[in-house]
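Quick one, probably user error.
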């Protein structure tokens, strides 16, 4: 016999910090049946392999997926290697550029290891949607498109806006939410999670499952985590991200650089510590507590300690870190042991290109042995063991 309290306890844990849960009464029935029959719910989360690192933005929904696992349910992590070739138009003002299979493969190479920093691998199925989408015949694709109307598709806000403005909308873009919905059919999802920008796509999943004779999934969306710039949702394309698998020192430093006003959201969405417990603290102490908590969660307490010691040495005591990469630069030096600063930055892999190196210097972000470099044309004298610094977090020791 299933007690109503058991169902309500699960619902309370699932609803915590969620933005949308639709329909709640359907999830209650699914949970009650799951408990009665001993059959875990299948809870789906799709990840778009547009970049090689999962971020704390992904961690928000991965944490919620872990909540379902802790309640006894099964996580189904669908990596959209096929749908990324189409590109999700959500929130975009123009057609998204397709990505090559080679780039997609390279990006998702470590997704499993990154995701399992948060998820329980024993309760997780990892699937690539190319498994089934590549095998669809044209007749099957036509059959899928026949189950949804253009009028319904144009209810989506970004499609509406582009249609009014006369901006191009390709038929291919209509296929993305249909393909994502078909993923739910194949994996027989009981629940699908996503960010708040995915609500429309997740709702299409309900309709398509019904059209294929399945019970429709419940949808649960989470708020989008604001990135390190304090303005836009965290994403690698904007560069305002903190990576799930970044080094502890990098993670700790990036958290410490967050705007103060983001602290309530980060505590709410990424920790079990109520913001009210730390709201009265000095912002720096609240951030240190947050940085420690997040690094310990993703890397372990020893690494959290390492990240904090690094931060305190570099930023509070203004000393270079004890450990940093060493870069041999003898080939770049002239007879006076000087080298162009742009060449040094590229050799140290602190810039991906000469133009990026020039921007770093022009922005006042580059120092050699504590002396700021003023111009990208500057040649700097290099001694063996000199410390090159780019931005707040990147250091290298130059070896002749």
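Nope, works fine. Designed sequence:
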């Amino acid at each position: 016999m299933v007690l109503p309290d058991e169902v309500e306890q699960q619902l309370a844990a699932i609803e915590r910090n969620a933005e949308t849960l639709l329909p709640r009464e359907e999830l209650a029935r699914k949970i009650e049946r799951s408990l009665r029959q001993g059959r875990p719910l299948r809870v789906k989360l799709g990840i778009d392999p547009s970049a090689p690192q999962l971020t704390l933005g992904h961690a928000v929904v991965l944490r919620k997926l872990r909540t379902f696992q802790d309640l006894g349910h099964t996580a189904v992590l669908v990596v959209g290697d096929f749908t990324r070739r189409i590109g999700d138009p959500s929130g975009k003002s123009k057609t998204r550029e397709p990505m090559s299979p080679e780039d997609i493969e390279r990006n998702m190479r470590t997704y499993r290891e990154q995701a399992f920093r948060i998820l329980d691998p024993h309760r997780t199925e990892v699937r690539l949607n190319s498994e089934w989408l590549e095998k669809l015949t044209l007749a099957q694709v036509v059959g899928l498109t026949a189950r949804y109307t253009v009028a319904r598709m144009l209810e989506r806000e970004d499609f509406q806006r582009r249609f009014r403005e006369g901006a191009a909308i390709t038929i291919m873009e209509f296929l993305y939410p249909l393909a994502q919905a078909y993923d739910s059919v194949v994996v027989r999802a009981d629940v699908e999670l996503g960010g708040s920008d995915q609500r429309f796509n997740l709702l299409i999943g309900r309709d398509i499952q019904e059209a294929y004779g399945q019970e429709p999934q419940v949808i649960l969306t989470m708020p989008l985590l604001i990135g390190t710039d304090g303005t836009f949702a965290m994403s690698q394309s904007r560069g305002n991200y903190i990576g799930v698998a970044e080094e502890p020192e990098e993670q700790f430093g990036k958290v410490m650089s967050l705007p103060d006003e983001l602290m309530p959201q980060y505590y709410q969405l990424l920790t079990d510590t109520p913001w009210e417990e730390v709201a009265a603290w000095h912002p720096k102490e609240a951030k240190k507590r947050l940085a420690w908590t997040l690094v310990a969660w993703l890397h372990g307490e020893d690494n959290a300690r390492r990240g904090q010691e690094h931060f305190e040495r570099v930023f509070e005591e203004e000393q270079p870190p004890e450990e940093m990469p060493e870069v041999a630069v003898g080939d770049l030096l002239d007879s006076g042991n000087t080298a162009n600063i742009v060449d040094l930055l590229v050799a140290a892999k602190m810039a991906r290109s000469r133009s990026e190196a020039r921007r770093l210097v022009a922005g006042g972000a580059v120092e050699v042995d504590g002396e700021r470099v003023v111009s990208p044309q500057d040649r700097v004298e290099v001694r063996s063991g000199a410390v090159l610094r780019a931005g707040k977090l990147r250091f290298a020791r130059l070896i002749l």
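The longest helix spans residues 171-187.
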